[in-house]
Amino acid sequence: MGLRITVPPEGRVVINSAVIQNRSKSEQADLCVLNHANVIRGKNIMQAEEATTPVRRAYFLMQSIIMENAEMDDPRLATFDQLLVELLAAFEHPDVVQRLREGRRLAADGAVYKAMMALKPVMKYEDAVLALGQAIEVEAGAGEAFRELVLEEG
After folding, report:
1. Which residue, of 25, 57, 71, 115, is most buried by count of CB atoms within 10 Å of its CB?
2. What are the CA-CA distances from residue 31 to residues 16, 21, 41, 92 (Å)?
3. Domain ranges of the chain
4. How does 32-71 read in b/e, with b if 16+ C-beta sit within 10 Å?
5. Mean per-residue pLDDT for 36-53?
6. Is the model's pLDDT at 14 over the cut of 70?
């Protein structure tokens, strides 16, 4: 029994660097991969322009390694490891640290897909931290604008 994949209407999946698209607008496609293959489902595919943060860049790097069927001596794996070392220095949340360590271990063991997927929850956390930082900046800017307005009127 192989890996069963359901591709939604107009959905995509990458199998061993080949992008496969379901052209149907209404029917899902059921596929079965009978041998070992690198597979990334459409919902997990990141476009290059989405790799805008450190965690997203690490995720995209692993995705590119998977999609290109790179060898385990690919220099991008060392880059990935260095990115995760830097992220470990930046994050303190225990769950995030655990996921980053897991990603490093998995990549070192050759489980690049699992290493990439270990970063999914870290991306969500990073998004939340960045959104909070932007909200604080907006609040600080609004406070400064309010003070300037009050001082001008006063």
Report:
1. 115
2. 14, 11, 12, 41
3. 1-45, 47-153
4. eeeeeebbbebebebeeeebeebbbbbbbbbbbbbbeebe
5. 91
6. yes
Q: Cα separation of 41 and 31, whole Å?
A: 12
Evaluate whether 46 touches 36 at the Cβ level (below 8 Å).
no
Q: Which residues pair with 19 in a beta bridge?
A: 14
Residue 125 vs residues 10, 14, 83: alpha-carbon distances, Å: 30, 26, 17
Residues with Cβ within 8 Å of residue 104, at least 6 apart in sequence: 81, 84, 85, 115
pTM equals 0.80
Helix H or strand E encompassing 33: strand 29-33
Dist. CA 18–CA 7, nearest whole Å: 14
